[in-house]
Amino acid sequence: MRILALAAVAIAVLCADSACAQSLKDDFDNGSLDPTKWTKKQITDAQISFVPDSRCGLSAIEITAREGDGGQQCGNACERAELRTAKSSWPSFGQEVWYRFSFRIDGDIPTIGSARTVIGQWKGPGDGSPMLAQRFDNGVFHITVQDNDNRRVVASAEGNYDDVQTVEASATKPGDKHEKDINAVLGLQSTELVDGRVSDFARKTRSDDVAGAPVDKGSFAQSSEIAKSVGLADPKFVSQIEVIPEKDAVLPDPRKGWVDMIYRIKPGRGDNERGPRGRGEIDIWANGEKIVSVRGNIGATLKQGGDEKLVGPYFKFGIYRSSVPGTLRFRFDEFSQATSRDGLPMLCPAK
User: Domains of the chain (ranges plus CATH)?
Assistant: First the structure.
């Protein structure tokens, strides 16, 4: 008995930091929020309900954002209603983690113009914008990956792709003296993906030599060459991300029914001075079909001497958007997180 007790203490010590605490599952069938799994730092109780129209089982959780409903940590400029995973489930930063969940949305959804709507995001140490995000703007569900200040649309549902490019360009801070340069790059990169046009610029940015390569002296020189070829003032605006879409793969429309998502995430950057150094990896499936793979510099560069704890990314779901008229409802069900795909539980048959 003493040996077993000592073993339990040893495991508790080893897992005290979250390196061993990466598995999480919630089917939301209890009709109440489990505080050991989720934190309500950015949501109010009035924005949470449980509904019988579930993906599986007895109920799903529904998050609602109404006009003028700031929630927590938002104010009058936006509407926020997000739940995040408890810190006890955050992985060590750089480890491979898999996620599975189902969601759908309904209510007042603008089909023209951007409300900067985020409906799911992963944030790592040092991130301002999320390294990976599910977005729903201009009537189009799309997924973005962040490389420091550069944002790429890596997958999209059918819709008005010109407006998606407008969303991309709006990521630039107003007044930045390189705003036109950044917008030009974002426009070229998103056009290359969603319209299927592979320009000379896109071929260069997607090549193994540039996109996703460690940012050493050689790749910086290549980035400089690319920047010069399209008239950019600074090579740092050339994204070090390689997007590998599956042929004819598009995201489903979550307004039309449940969408089943699987994500594989392994953070990394070639220019990290601490934490995982090497190409980051993301793979995405929707309704059982592979959609896209992403390789390269993902998230924020971690500098030597930084005080960020090397844990995460942590996952948040719900609604985060600019303050706009109407009510938006986000339904979420059958969430699981594991260190391998085999660790994800089987999902019930499609509805």
Answer: 18-343 (2.60.120.200)
